[in-house]
User: Which sequence fits this backbone?
């Protein structure tokens, strides 16, 4: 029989189901468990944590996840790949080392740590040596917000992960690697795909794209025929059962809920997509218009025919920076005339903000239940049982945002009638951490793999 | 014959900075042609007029019976800057499915649509 390799997805983001890694490791045979913890905003949160305590800065859920799958790792040879390292992969590795020690399995746990993605300490040198790190959307140079930068990480491809697996690691911890590389790396390792096998690499990337959001491809958040999707409380996370020729089957463990079908996989394929002919990663440019999907039995979808092209000479860099403050306040107005009351409250609030002389970069009013998600496309009904007034403000001036927060509650007694929903107290003033996407020459970023 | 997209397609959306993407997928392969023909870039731009500040791009994926749209300037600055309930564009997909297209009766019959599918 032709060799197949099973890569299972056990986390789609930091905050995902705590049980999913164990369900994947114990629900049936798998070879690799892939855990994706990082989103754009996550990196800056982790950076803030690390500033307060240098032993943190990684996804702490990962320690619990490893604890829950130790049997799979040490007895059944399941290997784990995760970008749980965040902005501090070595600290993450030492937490796992400590865990292994406390469970007396230290000799059976071999950890590879991938570093080199963190560019925060190199930013000035990079800017000085002619790398503008210009914003990919606005074109502005990073110099304009240099003093506000909290974190800067290059998206690393699969190569260092493959190296870690080659050196015998059964747990590979990375920082900001691409989500897709976590799935592709074990396939490269197992099948010996070379760095210029573009079609095969593209297949690995697309397997990664399907798996990277966890259960979002196996029935979660699936619009197609959503009423008939069974047992989401016990949803099975996806597994790619891959072959050396680059084809793979998306499946899940027997006895789990959810559904894997051509429509559910298609929905995941189009998620967060740009130009489908150019899905750019550090490893390869994948072409989504070449993907062929077919049903391969119950909860199995076969994916084949994928084409890829040579990678570019750039890496994407994810930079987080401080960009002022915001607060969002809400009140609920009830029938009769719920919308009219909420609209009057909004006018009163704005007039008070004006009288106070407060200035904001943006004031946004939404009427939840009427126009918050679909705007004017939704049209209006004759009468609403309730409408939530939701007002947000944004400013560089923290004081103005805090003052706004104090103007919501008084409306309960001095505004329109029929109001409730204020039990949460004053809106919280939050610091905004904004996202700055940039590109950098691959040649100036070097990664390192260390066994610890 | 007026057809609501919800009745012939499903969709998922997400974010890329201040841009929302909407993948629109035909419920049956034979309806993909209707999407290509009638859910044009101009039609989608008109549908979202006032809701987005930028332009619309459209891409075809005949292999998946799907179209992908990029709605620029859709998210109030995007991600953490945005004050919107839907700061990450998660439900622009269903907002697009509200769209109604006008399909000539002959073409509708060829595509296997019956008057009972009409949104009118």
Assistant:
């Amino acid at each position: 029989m032709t060799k197949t390799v099973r890569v299972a997805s056990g986390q789609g983001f930091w905050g995902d189901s705590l049980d999913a890694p164990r369900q994947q490791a114990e629900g049936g045979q798998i070879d690799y468990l892939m855990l994706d913890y990082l989103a754009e905003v996550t990196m800056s949160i982790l950076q803030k944590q690390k500033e307060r305590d240098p032993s943190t800065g990684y996804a702490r859920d990962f320690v619990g996840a490893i604890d829950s799958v130790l049997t799979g790792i040490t007895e059944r040879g399941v290997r784990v790949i995760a970008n749980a390292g965040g902005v501090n992969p070595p600290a993450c590795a030492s937490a796992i080392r400590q865990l292994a020690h406390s469970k007396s399995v230290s000799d059976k746990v071999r950890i590879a740590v991938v570093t080199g993605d963190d560019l925060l300490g190199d930013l000035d040198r990079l800017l000085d040596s002619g790398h503008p790190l210009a914003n990919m959307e606005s074109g502005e140079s990073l110099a304009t917000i240099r003093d506000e930068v909290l974190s800067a990480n290059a998206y690393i491809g699969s190569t260092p992960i493959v190296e870690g697996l080659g050196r015998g690691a059964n747990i590979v911890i990375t920082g900001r690697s691409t989500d897709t590389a976590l799935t592709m790396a074990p396939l490269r390792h197992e099948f010996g795909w070379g760095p210029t096998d573009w079609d095969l690499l593209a297949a690995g990337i697309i397997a990664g794209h399907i798996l990277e959001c966890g259960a979002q491809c196996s029935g979660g958040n699936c619009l197609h025929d959503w009423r008939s999707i069974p047992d989401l409380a016990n949803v099975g996370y996806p597994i790619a059962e891959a072959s050396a020729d680059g084809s793979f089957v998306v499946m899940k463990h027997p006895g789990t809920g959810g559904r894997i079908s051509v429509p559910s996989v298609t929905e995941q394929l189009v998620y967060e997509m740009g130009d489908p002919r150019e899905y750019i990663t550090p490893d390869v440019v994948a072409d989504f218009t070449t993907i062929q999907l077919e049903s391969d039995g119950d909860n199995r979808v076969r994916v084949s025919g994928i084409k890829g092209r040579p990678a570019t000479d750039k890496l994407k860099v994810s930079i987080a920076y401080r960009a002022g403050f915001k607060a969002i306040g809400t009140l609920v107005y009830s029938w009769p005339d719920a919308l009219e009351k909420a609209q009057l409250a909004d006018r009163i609030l704005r007039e008070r903000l004006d009288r106070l002389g407060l200035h904001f970069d943006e004031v946004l009013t939404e009427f939840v239940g009427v126009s918050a998600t679909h705007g004017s496309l939704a049209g209006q009904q004759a009468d609403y049982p309730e409408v939530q007034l939701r007002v947000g403000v944004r400013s560089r001036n923290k004081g103005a945002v805090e003052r706004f927060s104090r103007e919501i509650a008084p409306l309960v007694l001095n505004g329109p009638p029929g109001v409730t929903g204020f039990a949460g107290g004053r809106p919280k003033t939050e610091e905004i951490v904004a996202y700055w996407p940039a590109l950098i020459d691959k040649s100036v970023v070097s990664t390192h793999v260390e066994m610890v | 014959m007026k057809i609501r997209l919800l009745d012939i397609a499903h969709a998922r959306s997400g974010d890329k900075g201040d841009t929302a993407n909407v993948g629109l997928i035909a419920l049956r392969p034979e309806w993909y042609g209707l999407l290509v023909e009638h859910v044009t870039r101009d039609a989608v731009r008109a549908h979202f007029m006032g809701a987005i500040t930028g332009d619309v791009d459209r891409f075809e994926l005949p292999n998946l019976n799907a179209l992908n749209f990029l709605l620029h300037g859709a998210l109030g600055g995007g991600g953490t800057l945005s004050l919107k309930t839907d700061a990450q564009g998660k439900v622009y997909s269903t907002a697009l499915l509200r769209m109604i297209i006008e399909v000539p009766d002959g073409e509708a019959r060829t595509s296997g649509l019956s008057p009972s599918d009409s949104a009118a």
Residues 338-355 of chain A form the longest helix (18 residues).
